[in-house]
Amino acid sequence: MGHGNLSLSIDQISVGATCSQPIVSDAGVLLVAANTRITQQVITGLRERQIESISVDPRDLGVLSREAKPAQTPKHDRTKPDGHWDPLRPVKDQLVDRHGERLSAQRSAQLDLNVSTAKKAMDKFETLLLTEPIRSVADFAELFESYIDLMVDDLDQTVGAMALKMAVDEASERSLKIAVLGMSVACELGLCGTQVLEVGMVGLLHDAGLRVMDPELLKPLELLTEQQRWEYQKHPLVSGKFVAGVTGVPPNVKMAIEQVHEQFNGSGFPRGVKAQRIHLYARILNVVDAYLQLISANSLRSGILQHDALGLLLYQASRGLFDPQVIRAFLNVESLFPLGSHVELSTGQLAKVIRRPKVGFALPVVETSEGERVDLESSKTQVVRPMSVGNEEPTRLTQEMMESCDWNPASASILV
């Protein structure tokens, strides 16, 4: 039991209450993340794990015990009733199979609303960073619960929606993309709902330190002076310090925030740790962050085509730069033709990738510009080449360039 915590029987827990602090077992194992609403499914999951009592922070005892009043309904709109996914079970095991379906307009509207909600929450967070200590991240926890709702309902559409605004360089939107894509990889790796929520929290907050540092540090790494690089590489520690005393942020989230820019081979920063010494959350988000760095434009080049960026990640993983387990999961989520990206078909049609392949990585489900749904696993139609849409011509990488490229996201932006 944690120091100062109190033991509470499972039979005494109040359904509908929301814990402000993490709930752990009497042996100290994390059971429920902070800011989680206690549903009947949560309690059932605890019983299935043969948990008879939990260790709670004294501040939560009155809220969680049955004598307490039920917690207020969260303000955030949800696509389904609370509790339709179990935070203690792997999210991957709870996903609805939508492979044979089209994308939902209602789900698209909810995803747009989530982006708007996240931007407002991040703007508020950035203002507070500059004016007063951060005391709670409850708004973010609620937001990511909604994202797990959407992932469980349709993971492909949720991930694909992140591709729609990839050209936008706003820090708040980039942090959201890292968070949501990281959560999808965490799902693929078999993490439970509580852990997936924590991955999202790390993704959203890992660059908080940059928001209070010199704006010059946001330039491509090649344009920074040696002194500026040294300052830039301290920002994960600044981010970790910001969240250290925040209510509802577990220690493992702080640790992962400080390690997102560490590389699997030890060539990252701020401490140069490697392999399994890097927290799994950080290893997941390191891959996602590198991918977004490649496909995002900067002052020195246009964004790299998504298909080519994924190919480069695979080459770099073979050299030890990324965790191979995470790379495999990322490939399973995105496929060789990432969700939301565009391809030219052998019919001459332009199509958008809307579903991952059932088997392998190369034959996704696409939707043509005429609205025709084509499952490439069962069709004679083939992908001729990846394409881009929009005004900006993306940077292309040939196979030879991928093989010869010596790139490390911790030390340089790729120049082609």
TrEMBL record:
EC number: 3.1.4.52
SUPFAM superfamilies: HD-domain/PDEase-like
UniProt biased composition (Basic and acidic residues): 66-89
Keywords carried by this UniProt record: Hydrolase
GO molecular-function term, one example from the UniProt record: cyclic-guanylate-specific phosphodiesterase activity
Chain spans, region Disordered: 62-89
PANTHER family, per database record: CYCLIC DI-GMP PHOSPHODIESTERASE PA4108, CYCLIC DI-GMP PHOSPHODIESTERASE PA4108-RELATED
Protein name, as recorded: Cyclic di-GMP phosphodiesterase response regulator RpfG
